[in-house]
Amino acid sequence: MDTQVAIIGGGPSGLLLSQLLNKAGISTIVLERSTREHVLSRIRAGILEWGTVEMLRKAGVNLRMESEGFPHDGCYMTDEDLMVHIDFKELTGKQVMVYGQTEVTADLYAAQDAMGTQIIHEVEDVKILDLDQEEAAVEYTLKGERKRITCAYVAGCDGFHGVSRKTIPEEKRREFERVYPFGWLGILSETPPCNDELIYCNSPRGFALASMRNAKLSRYYIQVPLTDKVEDWSDEAFWEELKSRLPSETAAKMQTGPSIEKSIAPLRSFVSEPLRWGRLFLVGDAAHIVPPTGAKGLNLAASDVHYLHEALVDALTKGDMTGIDTYSEVALKRIWKAMRFSWSMTTMMHRFDGEDEFAGAMRRSTLEHLASSETARRELAENYIGLPY
Ligand code: FAS
Ligand code: PHB
């Protein structure tokens, strides 16, 4: 056997799983389609649940996060000039960490390099085979040469467009999907954030989010029609539209500047069941996609890794198959709760084409209820900081 666990995908899921398995003495080979530079050029998630922070500590990749990340005690939800503070710390005793996915991925690569882990970039035409045999196999092409590795298990950490999920026969997969009729236009700008905590904005013109990466780097999003293209939006047009959706006093003090990254991400909710097929296990975006409104995508990948890493260590070091046999059922329980929260936040904070006045009134009254009910704020806070593993 070439390795104990073959990991398809060198994004946060694959790298975190590899790091935790290696620390437990289990060998891995990571197969990544892109170059490392390309993986590290992606601008994605910005909020870590505390469970994810603990996972990174357990993996020994927390030093830079502890010194450069920002623990946040809460966030704001707004509807025009109504601003509701959700105080996570007061309501749940917990915080979230503002630290970009790009940095998490870079820290994981550095740690894996330090451990001398095999990470093979620019692989092509990956095929996952023999999942019902004593040993599984993964074939791939590297620089024109066909390769084959044998392993005990395969972790499919290759995201929504990867090969792993599709390795499970279509007739054996049960897929659930909701595609939202809008996207998020996001920019990164070297400007100080407009607020000390995140602001999720509902407005008659649509959703907006004011986030950040650090005291000099802001991340902003606005809801746009799916027909929009990035080139349709000048920086000036973006800033004007963003300000029109923020509470007026926040907009008035906002510092604008040139975008250093600008992109449109589509929004969907998606789950594929089961997460196991013989010796193959799906992890992270390979199994599920959430709209980023609840800041759950990266964090759900981390909890999948938590369950699978524990299951593989038990199976490979103690011969205990319980975790392996229950991984799909256990992980899906938490996945569906995060799916519900992300869908609820998205439907609560976005305008849908053709909606009537009643829909806007419902959004407004949801905010009013949050403003007046500590119970409602606690329910949102518990989901946002992350449900228990
Ligand atoms: P990833 O997609 O990150 O990684 C999969 C890796 O597998 C990639 O490196 C890919 O190159 C590789 N791969 C694919 N096919 C392969 C194959 N056949 N062979 C080998 N390798 C293969 N989440 C949030 O919480 N907040 C956000 O704001 C947010 N914004 C996002 C914006 C965008 C545009 C996208 C696409 C996602 C966003 N997400 C966000 C979700 C995102 O952060 C994911 O949840 C997170 O990247 C999940 O990590 P992985 O499961 O590792 O998948
Ligand atoms: C981000 O900073 O990129 C971010 C923060 C919170 C979200 C989504 C994205 O819900």
Kindly summarize this structure in a few lines.
The protein is 39% helix and 30% strand.
How would you classify the quaternary structure? single chain
Structural class: alpha+beta
Distinct ligand kinds: arabino-flavin-adenine dinucleotide, P-hydroxybenzoic acid
Largest sheet: 8 strands, mixed
Instruction: Flag low-confidence runs.
Output: none
CATH topology of the largest domain: FAD/NAD(P)-binding domain
Name of the top-level CATH class of the largest domain: Alpha Beta
Mean pLDDT: 97
Q: Compute the number of strand runs.
A: 19
Strand content: 25-35%
User: Which architecture of the largest domain does the CATH hierarchy give at level 2?
Assistant: 3-Layer(bba) Sandwich
Can you walk through the features of this model?
- The protein is an alpha+beta fold.
- The protein has 13 helices and 19 strands.
- 39% of the residues lie in helices and 30% in strands.
- Strand 1 (3-8), helix 1 and strand 2 form a beta-alpha-beta unit.
- It is globular.
- The mean pLDDT is 97.
- The structure holds arabino-flavin-adenine dinucleotide and P-hydroxybenzoic acid (PHB).
- P-hydroxybenzoic acid binds next to strand 14.
